[in-house]
Amino acid sequence: MNPATAFRQSRGFTIVELVTTIVILGIVAAIASPRFFNTSPFETAGFAAEVRAGLRHAQATAMASGCDIRAGIASATFVLQRWSGGAGCNDHAGTLQTLKRPGGGDYSAAAPSNVAVGSAALYFDSMGRPRDADTGTLLATALSIPVGSDTIVITPETGLVR
C-alpha cells in the first residue's frame, strides 16, 4: 500500500466520534455551568465583610466622638445610626439619624436577596463597649449574628468584631 494513500484514508474523525464528543461536552457543560456561575457564596462573604467593617466603624466612631452609635441588623438590612436632638448625642430619647459613610452616602446596606441574616440591635458606647439597644446593659455574652453560612461575633466588654 502506498504511504500517501494510507495517510489520506486515516485523516479526520468519523461522524460518530464527533457526535459522541459533542454529547459528552454538552453533559459536562450542563453539570458544571450552574456551579461556575453561582455567585451566592461571594454575595454572602461580601455582605458579611461589609457588616463587620460597619460594626468596626461604629465602634471607632463612638470612641472618637464620645457619642453612642447604634447598629441595627435585620433580616434584610444593616444600618448605623446616632441619636440627635434631646439633651445630646447620648440622649436616647432623641431621634435616630443614619450615619454617613466616610466616602459619602448613608451607612446602610441591603442584604442580597438570597442571603439570610440574623437580627440584632446594639450600640457602642464612648468606650467602644457593645450594649443592648433595648436595655442599655453591657453585653454579658458574645453576640453571634448569622449571615448566610458565615457568623459575625461581637465580644462582650471589648467590642471586638470577628
Description:
The structure is a single chain. Strands 1, 2, 3, 4, 5 and 6 form a 6-stranded antiparallel beta sheet that branches. A two-stranded antiparallel sheet has the order 7-8. The longest helix has 26 residues, at 40-65. 34% of the residues lie in helices and 23% in strands. With 162 residues, the protein is α+β, with helices and mostly antiparallel strands. It is rod-shaped.
**Secondary-structure element series:** HHHEEEEEEEE
How much of the residues is beta strand, in percent? 15-25%
* N-end to C-end Cα span: 77 Å
Classification by helices and strands: alpha+beta
- Mean pLDDT across all amino acids: 90
Major beta sheet summary: 6 strands, antiparallel
Strand and helix map with partners:
Blueprint: H1 3-9, H2 15-36, H3 40-65, E1 69-73, E2 77-84, E3 95-98, E4 108-110, E5 120-124, E6 130-132, E7 143-147, E8 150-154
Keywords:
alpha+beta; 6-stranded antiparallel β-sheet; 3 helices; 162 residues; 23% strand
